[in-house]
Amino acid sequence: PAAATTAARQTRRLQALAEDLLLLARLDTRTATAGHETVDLTALASRLTEQYPLSERPLTLTCDSTAPAHAHGNPDEYERLLRNLIDNAARHAAHRIQITVRNQDAWVVLTVADDGPGVPTEDAERIFERFVRLDDARSRDHGGTGLGLAIARDLAHRHQGTLTLTPRTLGACFQLRLPQAPTPAEE
Predict the structure, then answer these.
(1) From the DSSP assignment, how many helices (H) and strands (E) are in the chain?
(2) Within 13 Å of residue 178, how many CA atoms lie on the same side as its CB?
(3) Helical residues (DSSP H) of the chain, grouped into ranges
(4) Angle CA 37–83–148, to nearest 5
């Protein structure tokens, strides 16, 4: 039974890796389309907060936003982008992950912050490169493949946005900025 469980876990990990590589290939060739649906990122963040499995260790995942924040794009790609940021935060957080979504001028600004060890300043851009895993991440049993943040940034760019690591004294804070769309009633 232990060998079967390990084999099943490794199979899921390989399947996820293959899916990530295929998505990156599609993004590189521009065959994936960003879409023009209007997506409420506050609703998406709230839904993911409620559904995210946090069973491996005690973590608190909260979304402090309530006002709708609309952006044009592909809802599945936005979900993937946000899940990648939450997965990254969950891997490194000590106790807490905080998602914030707000409207700022003509932008929707979404942040995912954790209270983990943070990212050294010299690695702030490097972590967005493909297959990059910092030494601390390599020591973890359930570390990622080093593709999640690269995919998240590619998806942000695909939707005319940016994804950056913002300086913090404790933990890491990823900031996603996307052009704000009019609310569906205004269109």
Answers:
(1) 5, 7
(2) 32
(3) 2-29, 41-51, 75-92, 135-138, 148-158
(4) 110
68 three-state secondary structure: coil
Side by side, the strands of the sheet bearing 173-179 are: 60-63, 96-104, 107-114, 173-179, 162-166
Which H or E element spans position 178?
A: strand 173-179
Which pTM value belongs to this model? 0.81
Q: Which CATH class is domain 35-179?
A: alpha beta
What pLDDT digit, counting tens, does each position of 11-52 carry? 776 776 667 666 666 666 764 555 678 999 999 999 999 988
Which residues have CB under 8 Å from 184's CB, separation 6+? 38, 70
**Sequence spans of domains, the chain:** 35-179
